[in-house]
Amino acid sequence: MSLTKTLYEKDLYPEIEDAGDSDFARDCVEIASERLAKGQIDRRTFLTAMTLLGALPAGVALGSKTAGAAAKELVVVNWGGPAVEAYAKAFGDPFEKSAGVKVVIDGTGPLGSKIKAMVDAKAVTWDVCDTGTGTTLVLQKQGVLQKIDYSIVDKKKMQDIFAYEYGCANYMFSFILAYNKTKVPSAPTGWKDFWDLAKFPGNRTLRKQPNGMLEACMMAAGKSPKSVYPIDIDLAVGKLKEIKANVIAWGSGSQSQELFRTGEVAMGNIWHTRANLLNQETKGDVTWTWQDGIVTAGMWNVPLANPAGTETAMKFIASSQDPEQQLVLFDAMGNGPANPAAAAKVPADKKYIDPGQPENLALQVLQNGPWYEEDSGVRNLTNDELSREKWLDALSS
Amino acid sequence: MSIAGFVEPSAGQILLDDSDITALPPDKRNFGMVFQGYALFPHMTVADNIWFPLKVRGVSKANAGDRVRNALDLVQLGHLAERYPSQLSGGQQQRVALARALVFEPALLLLDEPLSALDKKLRADLQWELKSLHHRLGTTFIYVTHDQEEALSMSDEIVILRDGKIEQQGGPGDLYEKPATRFVADFLGKSNFLEGSVSGTQSDRFDYAIGEQTLVQAGKPDHQKVDGKVLVSLRPEKMVIADQRPDTVNAVTGTISAFNYYGSTYHFQVATRDLGDLIVTSPAWTCSIEPSIGNDIWLGWQPDASVVVRDR
Amino acid sequence: MHASLRRIYWWLIAPAVLLMLVFYIYPLVQVLWISVTDPVPGLGNYMELIERPLIHRIWMTTLRVCVITTAVTVIAGYAVAYAMCHVGDRHRTWMMFCVLLTFWLSVLIRAFAWVMLLRTEGIVNSGLQELGLIDEPLRLVRNEFGVIVGMVHFMLPLAVLPIYSNMTGIDTRLISAARGLGASPIGAFTNIYLPLSKPGLIAATILVFVFSLGFFITPALLGGGKVVMISEYIQVSFEETLRWGQATMLSSTLLFSVLLSLALVARFVDLKKVFGAR
Questions:
Q1: A174-295+368-396 in CATH: which number?
Q2: Residue B247: strand, helix, or coil
Q3: Are residues C70 and C204 in the same domain?
């Protein structure tokens, strides 16, 4: 852990938390915090979360408490703030009732580096972690995760493609094409338009990480949504280079939103939750299309040798697949339900922000995790690793 | 500072020989300058310090070699050429400053209290050196000092300034012996001031009275004030001090109220009835009285020992 | 000194030494260790320095940005410090306040302020357009230019303070002396003032360069994701891709380059003197 402290600059600059890149899961917390500031969620909820955070600053302290009390307590780690309360309400309380295991929501933030550090140090204090597909792929290559036991967790209660060997869908979200109506001559209809600098002049924003971007590049290169995979990394990165001069890259969700706010970009490939916020605050000037969106998932991970044991963790994940529970989270945080069965239960006025609605799904591509896991044939790197490197190389060249 | 060109005079002109240099910046005046505290450049060796005025005049280090060496020899520091100023003593630094100011053969050398930072003995030594240097070079030195003894000993010509105006100008002897004003008399050396009413005038002398005492003064009663009084400056060493009434035209009695022994001289403070407290100095080895407080003595001086001065 | 007394002194500083060992040296050694053991023992991570074009590019970007930032900051800092030394007390206080003000602002606020000023529709661009100086808005931010602007702004106090403190120690009479001895104003500056302010300049250069090498947030925010410096890549390797061998290798290289640049400077100047230890 001392290594973490040495290298981790966020300890030196607290504001880096906002400046750095973020996963979708963390971003949901940020959005909810903003909603609180605007009075859209109640203060009690937020305070409870904050108290929890203060009382449980680090997983390590928790771990020592739980060491002797195996399987009586399950630690679920997410990105803190309002997510602590929301997860407790959506998943924690129901599981406590059904399984009799106390669920502690720890808002420390399940950074991949922290999970690896814990496992390497053989001091694992977390049971279930709320991460993303990228982190899952990296962690599984590091060999620090447990396989998902699909005899307990039901593959049918999620999009099949989001059932990874070492992680499974917790909720769904999309990378979509957002645009500012006042800065484009007409509504862009897909990534081909996004790449058309002549017809749609101005800057665009893409993510610093390739995940969710490569797919858009492939579609811009003329591939149909059905034939995006296998991705030709060089082709996709080449497409980035084509428009690079007009690209400003975003690292965190709030940055992507800020770029639209400051008028620096006309279009962007951003998370649908941020597009929705922009849509509300600009009274519809910024909007988005589900067309050619890339649906991906928030992931449940279980670190090796988790204190509550594999079975309890898997049971918790299975319990969280209940459509009603996922709707509670959707309501509180905007995370689209992972279970297709939940789609029909989404209230009519919220369906437009649910990437999992059949009519929205029909327009989009489901992100293919297995492709990212495959060996790229270069320097023993997976497609995920190689594409990260090439993407960054192209961006910074 | 105006002569050097650092401060623009609010009125008047500065002439060098016959040319007006009032508006010329310091670097165009071609004056050598020795500053209070020397202002040697700490990052340069002694040789480079001396080369500096030549360097800014476009002389390369190679070509300047001889002149730098000569200037160093002039101040007898040839062996310290490669030292840095911080490695030199005060006297050595002063000499480097001098060499630096002279190396480019300036039209004029300005010395701004050049010895004020040195101890008394070193100061005396350097005074001799400066004088002999001046004699050898023949360059005009303008020497600013607040030390009157230094002013007297170093100068051919002294200008005494008061509040920016010339009070008196002349050779050191003239200024000391014949101060025109109370300020000059007081500034150069010590003086007693006697103020009395003129009571009788002859062709080459006059009488004046202070209290019940009548004194004789050579010359004319110049600078009489509206009430007819004159001011006379009497140097302490121009009185004789004796047990008996001395054989001088003027003589008064007094009592020693304090004295200091300086080895070569005694300084007495003498209380008199009509003239107030007077300061008197006497060569110690010829002193004829018993120096002790309370001793009653006589003071005497000739009419031409004192001078009439303007009171202002 | 008595041997026993010396032993007491050692005991007195022992806690500090221990603290350094445990919290500073040990983690550093650990970083070095990981860099030669993860994922496999050997110098494979260091080979990447030579083999991987991406790492070359990131290093070159880092050095280029740092050198330009350092040069601009030190020159600007010198001008500010010089002005501060030559204005009245009241102005000096204000100038010092303005210089330090940036210290108290969060990195994020500063970066965001620059975005607002320099963006396409920002004050600078619209001002220049209004004046008819440019037709198309200039790209002033979300690129290397923007990064350098932001970094120079951040670093300015680090340059101003050592230079200013050095300059206040310069005897201004030396300048008068130089002028009196025949130097023009420029001659007096280049021959006397500049050499005498050299220690401040060197201290500022070292400080700014070393700090710049580790810069992260400002490049990330103002560079539009396109100016990737070594620290950001360390963060990516450490946190996102979990390639700790690579991350620690880059950290170690960064540390070595700082030490190397200090060693280089130390060959020419007395560092202890520059930083006032002597």
A1: 3.40.190.10
A2: coil
A3: yes
| Tens-place pLDDT, residues A147-171 | 999 999 999 999 999 999 999 999 9
* CA-based nearest distance A36→chain C, Å: 22
Count of structural domains within chain C: 2
Mutate to test the interface with B, among C176, C179, C181 (most CBs of B within 10 A): C181
ipTM of the prediction? 0.87
Q: How far apart are the first and last CA of chain C?
A: 22
Q: How far apart are CA A294 and CA B259, in angstroms?
A: 109
Q: C170 vs chain B: nearest CA distance in angstroms?
A: 10
Q: Which residues fall within 8 angstroms of residue A324, CB to CB, at 6 or more apart?
A: A342, A345
Helices (H), chain B: 46-55, 61-74, 90-102, 120-137, 148-154, 172-177, 182-187
Question: pTM score > 0.95 for this model?
Answer: no
Domain boundaries in chain B? 2-156, 190-308
Fold of B2-156: Rossmann fold (3.40.50)
| C119 three-state secondary structure | coil
- Express each pLDDT in A349-386 by its tens digit: 999 999 999 999 999 999 998 899 899 999 888 999 99
* pLDDT more than 90, % of chain A: 75
Which CATH architecture fits B190-308?
A: Beta Barrel (2.40)
Distance from CA of A19 to the nearest CA of C (A): 6
At A71, the pLDDT band (50, 70, 90 cuts) reads: low
> Is residue C160 located within the same domain as residue C179?
yes
Model confidence pLDDT, tens digit, residues A296-342: 999 999 999 999 999 999 999 999 999 999 999 999 888 899 999 99
Q: State whether residue C141 is helix, strand or coil.
A: coil
Q: A230 pLDDT band (50/70/90 cuts)?
A: very high
pLDDT tens digits for A240-269? 999 999 999 999 898 999 999 999 999 999
Residues in Cβ contact with A333 at an 8 Å cutoff, skipping those fewer than 6 apart: A28, A29, A31, A32, A82, A83, A86
Of A5, A112, A263, the CB nearest to C242: A112
Beta bridge partners of B253: B298
Among the four given CATH numbers 3.60.20.40, 3.40.720.10, 3.40.190.10, 1.10.760.10, the one describing domain A2-172+297-366: 3.40.190.10
How would you classify the pairing of strands B15-16 and B19-20? antiparallel
Q: Whole-number mean pLDDT of chain B?
A: 88
| Same domain as C5, residue C79 | no
Is residue A81 within 8 A of residue A29, CB to CB? The reply is yes
Q: Write down the pLDDT at residue B136.
A: 86
* Topology match between the domains A2-172+297-366 and A174-295+368-396: yes
Structural domain span for residue C11: 1-35
Q: Does one domain contain both C27 and C72?
A: no
Q: If contacts are CB pairs under 8 Å, which of residues 91-120 in chain B contact chain C?
A: 100-101, 104, 110
- Structural domain boundaries in chain A: 2-172+297-366, 174-295+368-396
CB contact (8 A) between residue B110 and residue C181:
no
Mean pLDDT score across all residues of chain A: 86
CATH number of the domain residue C120 falls in: 1.10.3720.10
